[in-house]
Amino acid sequence: MSPTRRDFLKTTAAAAAAVAAYPGLVTDPAAQTLAAPEADAAALALAQEALDAARSAGASYADVRIGRYRSQQIATRERQIAGVGDSESYGLGVRTLVDGRWGFAATSRMDRSAVQRAALEAIAMSKAAQAVGSRRVELAPVEPATGAWITPVRIDPLEVPIEDKVALLFAANEAALKVKGVQFVNSSLALLREVKTLLTSEGTSVTQTMIRVGPSFSATAVGTGDFQSYSEELAPRGEGWEYITSLDMPGNAERWASLAVEKLTAKSVEAGDYDLILDPTNLWLTIHESIGHATELDRAIGEEANYAGTSFLAPPERMLGQFRYGPDFMSIQADRTQPGSLARVAWDDEGVPADRWLIVDNGVFIDYQTTREQVARIQALTGVTRSHGCSFAESWDAVQFQRMPNISLLPGEEDLSLDDIVADTTRGIVIRNRGSWSIDHQRYNFQFSGQQFQEVRNGRIVGPLRDVAYQANTPEFWSSMDLIGGASSYWLGGTFSDGKGEPSQASSVSHGCVPARFRSVRILNTGRTA
Amino acid sequence: MSRRQPGQTAAGAPATGGLLLTREEARALADRVLAMSSADETRVTVSSGRSGNTRFADGNISTSGSSEDTLVTVVATIGRRQASASTNVLDDSSLRRTVETAQRLARLSPEDPELMPELGPQTYDEVPAFVARTADLDPEARALAVGRAVEAAAAGGREAGAIFTAGFLNAGAQAVAVATSNGLFAYHRTTAASFTMTARTPDGTGSGWAGTGARDWSAVDSAALGRIAAQKAAASRNPGAIEPGRYTAVLEPAAVSDLVPLLAGALDARSADEGRSPFSKPGGGTRIGERVVDPRVTLYSDPADPALLGQPFDGEGLPIRRTVWIEDGVLRNLFYTRFWAQKQGTEPTGFPRLGGLALAGGTRSLDELIAGCERGILVTHFFYIRSLDPRTVLNTGLTRDGTFLIEDGRVTRSLKNFRWNESPLLMLDRLEDIGRSEPTAPGLLMPPLRISGFDFSSLSDAV
Q1: Are residue B254 and residue B220 in the same domain, yes or no?
Q2: Rounded CA separation B130/B309 (Å)
């Protein structure tokens, strides 16, 4: 049975209250010292020019995005720089709808004639598309929006002197190299600032500044005829430089590096079925792959069939309100408002205000991720008449389409920690951080690894393991979840490089979760094979 | 997950004007930037491109797009310090700011003990990789090609009912130039077109795929690909399950093309010398000169090979010429950067993929490879491949869009998809047969292979 609209609103409000209560989610939730910049007047005039050209040439709807992307990357190895780079990309993309068909064209030439040509090129594509098929795009309504927004940060990472950044990474590397057996260390920072202006033919005019930071650290220990690496899971975030310093990479690097050495002599796992205890540093990616991608509506209706794949959660009429993902205590929330998260915005790339809603409520699948053109596909089933605001394009030169919001596992009612779960487990394995990951094109069969593995016997961690991967089927895996942590153990992971679409586009997304136990999961040994 | 093809750019469309820089325009822009620099040494890379694409799903064109862009990257060296900055804003003040940013970052960066001086003038092979009809493919021509594929799929899969089709056509052109303050100038332009298509049966139990890529759009027959995808979809309906395990595998060229290029990263000489590569010799050194795979295997890069048409220089302007990585099963070369080559007293090579990558084939067809198989599994292509163990190049992934049982030399029924755990290196040592090589993407030439003991480790319910 489908949930009613009233139930939906009720549960969303309850979940919102729960989220607000999480401690330690961001470095400083109150941080907000930078003002949100308004759109540049000259750029705005060019956007208007493109919009007018599209309308005059017959577009029933058009939108124009101007993006200015700044990024800085610093990579080091041991005691030297592996690369320092700074890049800037600026341009305009125009999307048109003619007789229900999309067209899109983009240019980095920011002058009147170039943006007018881009508008006409988009119109030509809209018209050429009439030659194949007969489906017409219909957009769900949205109130026109105006305004400006910026990621709340205290310190803009691009304004921090490069010396400070290099010094921080070198201090971490130096600490790691103190560990006997550690021969190689890599550390890096990726720092981004995106300023994006959206104008639509319906009257929306918004400018947003998104700031994101992504640190990384890994160490490699070389033994006799063998080597092992350990990468710390330093989550990228939609935060400022203050997040990077809060990680204390120099203070933690020695401990991280020693875990690479530990793996050289760790016991190679015996393949078989074990109870699996996944730390949030590992579980976030499993959520991303087996729930995040499975609940994308474009996949469910086949639009990604040629690339990322489809979804086992199809067709919508047989799944919504009917498919049981997991136990009653499992609730999954989609959220583009979550502080510190990578997919946080004020408006999506169609001008839809950021939304928060439940995907899985008490174990039951109740909603997909949507853009404006997707709403009509499931409106009769969900009662939801607005877009959930999941439209996103990686750059000015790419067309916007449905991308994943932050999707998170809500904490359990009882405030359990990972240690509490270990204490309750007779024979199991704890897995931390992201290792290798792979999942099929309908999101059933997956195989994930990690960076640190620990054997659990009779309620205690008894020693390190290596060569561990877990392999499972999505519905069986989530049904086997029998214990989860509480709000104090909530942690927000994420990635800068979720890929989807053709041409492939990257998007940034976060996933929050608590530690969880899964009963009797198949463990493989991925060690050396002949 | 990202599969942007080499030579493809995120840039440009024909009708929005020719942003693709000529040799003279690229040189003029590079010289303008070099003149702004006061660094000890400067390198400028100018990359201009345009491309157009058409995407379709459920028999309708869903999105199309085009873009054009020119990116200037400046690498400044001051003493032994180096950094880079890039911009696509080409007015004087933006270019000057970019040059200054690179110099400022360089001054602030620590000394790099591995820094190599910028190269002076070089000579390059002329590689004719630009085809005007690929660069000029417009939205109408793309829509026509998509329409032909959708129609051919409907006909080719008729026995299975109303076939669902989804796919992607991309065509573009790119010009890359590298110039240094020591007088080097390199210029290369290339085109790439690709068409891939997935067909699914209305009962949801069958899926097929076909695709190809070429420098020349006229080599891409979208109708033929649509028909093959639909026929595979129809044939793959109602797949059966067999017990996971090690089976003989017949890999189509597209499947080989998913696996063998993974060896490119493993061919890094430094990792081998440092003891963290499958090509490290126990006790130190590399395995160059040792037999590492079956003697029928020869793997090479050669930008001038008409079947590859790769880039004849790398990002530093270093000429890339024919390099044989594995010859008759013996490891002959590893990938050396300029620094590592100097340290080891040898010549630098380009990264294996830049100059194209070819696995030299035999003479037999895919059908002949199937005919020679008593019992095995035919694989159309693979999906979601991830590294498990760099020591053996062990990877995991899944089969997709057409997996079939072979019995007594014939395809007898469709199978559920498998997850597999396999190494392209170890696999090439279990070679039973090798077929004729064919282009699978621009710059890739791969044959079908028959491999014994391929590790199909678990079943997947995904169709």
Answers
A1: no
A2: 9
Which among A186, A231, A374, A445 is the top mutation candidate for probing chain B, defined by the most B β-carbons within 10 Å of its own β-carbon? A445
Amino acid identity at B91: D
Q: What is the CATH number of the domain that holds B145?
A: 3.30.2290.10
Query: Which of A88, A226, A268, A474 to mutate against chain B (most B CBs within 10 Å)?
Result: A88
Average pLDDT, chain B: 94
**Would you list the domain boundaries of chain A?**
5-28+269-525, 41-265
Q: For the CA atoms of B426, B431, B435, B437, what is the dihedral angle to 10 degrees?
A: 20
The CA-based angle B213-B218-B222, given to 5 degrees, is 65
B109 band by pLDDT with thresholds 50, 70 and 90: confident
Summarised one tens digit per residue, pLDDT across range B247-301 is 999 999 999 999 999 999 999 999 999 988 999 998 899 999 999 999 999 999 9
CA B41 to chain centre: 32
DSSP state of A503: T
Strands (E), A244-371: 267-268, 272-278, 332-335, 356-361, 364-365
Nearest CA to B254 out of B459, B435, B8, B462 is that of: B435
* Residue B192 and residue B306 share a domain: no
Beta strands A61-77 and A80-98 are: antiparallel
Pick the last residue of a domain from B234, B260, B280: B234
Q: Are residues B447 and B430 in the same domain?
A: yes
Per-residue pLDDT tens digits for A156-204: 999 998 889 999 999 999 999 999 999 999 999 999 999 999 999 999 9
Whether B181 and B217 map to the same domain: the answer is: yes
Ramachandran area for residue B78 (φ above 0: left; ψ -120 to 50: alpha; else beta)? beta
Q: For residue A217, what are the CA distances in angstroms to A2, A187, A450?
A: 45, 4, 15
Q: Are strands B330-331 and B323-327 parallel, antiparallel or unpaired?
A: antiparallel
Contact of A40 with A106, CB cutoff 8 Å = no
Are A161 and B166 inside 8 Å of each other by CB? no
DSSP A160: S
Q: Both B220 and B303 in a single domain?
A: no
Is residue B385 domain-resident? yes
Side-chain-side CA neighbours of residue B209 (13 Å):
25
Q: Which among B250, B291, B262, B263 is positioned nearest to B447, based on CA atoms?
A: B250
CA distances from B5 to A506, B210, B339, B444 (A): 15, 16, 28, 10
For residue B4, being part of any structural domain is answered with no
Report yes or no on B6 lying in a domain.
no
**Domain final residue pick, B164, B199, B234:** B234
Q: Is A172 helix (H, G, I), strand (E, B) or coil?
A: helix
Q: Are residues B220 and B253 in the same domain?
A: no
CA distance B100 to chain A (A): 11
| CB within 8 Å of chain B, chain A residues 296-355 | 301-310, 312
- Residue B92: C-alpha distances to residues A109, A111, B87, B89, B402 (Å): 14, 16, 12, 9, 54
On whether residue B2 sits in a domain, the answer given is no
Are B463 and B428 contacting, i.e. CB atoms less than 8 angstroms apart? no
* Residue closest to B7 by CA, chosen among B44, B51, B45: B51
Shared-domain flag, residues B226 and B177: yes
- List phi, psi (to 5°) of B31: -65, -40
CA A41 to centroid of chain Cα atoms: 32
Domain count, chain B: 2
| CA atoms within a 13 Å half-sphere pointing along the CA-CB vector of B129 | 33
Nearest CA-CA distance, residue A18 and chain B, Å: 33
Q: Within a 10 A sphere around the Cβ of A161, how many other Cβ atoms?
A: 9
Residue range(s) defining the domain that contains residue B261: 239-463
Structurally, what CATH architecture does the domain formed by A41-265 represent? 2-Layer Sandwich (3.30)
Note whether B163 and B267 are same-domain residues: no
